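Hey,

Quick one before I head out. I ran the complex with coenzyme A overnight. Inputs first:
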Amino acid sequence: MIELREFTMNDAPALQRIYSGASLRYIERRSLTLDEAVALVANALADACSEPRDRWAYGITADGDLLGMVRLRCRTERHASLSYVLREDSWGRGYATRAVAGMLRHAFTATGLTSIGARHHPDNTASGRVLEKNGFRYRGTRDGWSSYSIRRPGGREP
Ligand SMILES: CC(C)(COP(=O)(O)OP(=O)(O)OC[C@H]1O[C@@H](n2cnc3c(N)ncnc32)[C@H](O)[C@@H]1OP(=O)(O)O)[C@@H](O)C(=O)NCCC(=O)NCCS
């Protein structure tokens, strides 16, 4: 069972470990220094206090172990982009699929968002599966990235 929670400053070393090794293969990031991990957590904490809130970054935990992050960033008032990363040794257990499901529930019940987009490197098949299993629709390749979107249940399809 996984849980989503806000970050605390103590999470920086765990976040540094999440953003390392194979987890970076298909994302636009290099390994984090500890200072960068601290800055990432500090930004997430500042975002959690901003009003109106336009960014959500939640830690993904299993049995208290912080093993990933799922994020939403508003692009407009009603549309946000989704991203997620799991520590390599936690892959293949359905954690990302459940974390995205939890974030979607939050987005479509507790915020004013009506649509969410996501994208992945074309070779990142696992990420595509995570999106498809959560109801995202493939929208084609944009700027070399496989692009997806989902609308709030009950909302109109574009
Ligand atoms: C992509 C990522 C989040 C998946 O996390 P995960 O917890 O392993 O995902 P899940 O276990 O929920 O589901 C993975 C799905 O992909 C499938 N999968 C895993 N590796 C695969 C591969 N190499 N090729 C095809 N499918 C693959 C799994 O079988 C599963 O699908 P299924 O349930 O239909 O069998 C994780 O690999 C990761 O963090 N990667 C690095 C960061 C990243 O790429 N983030 C996404 C950026 S857009």
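Residues 34-49 form the longest helix (16 residues).

Talk tomorrow,
K.
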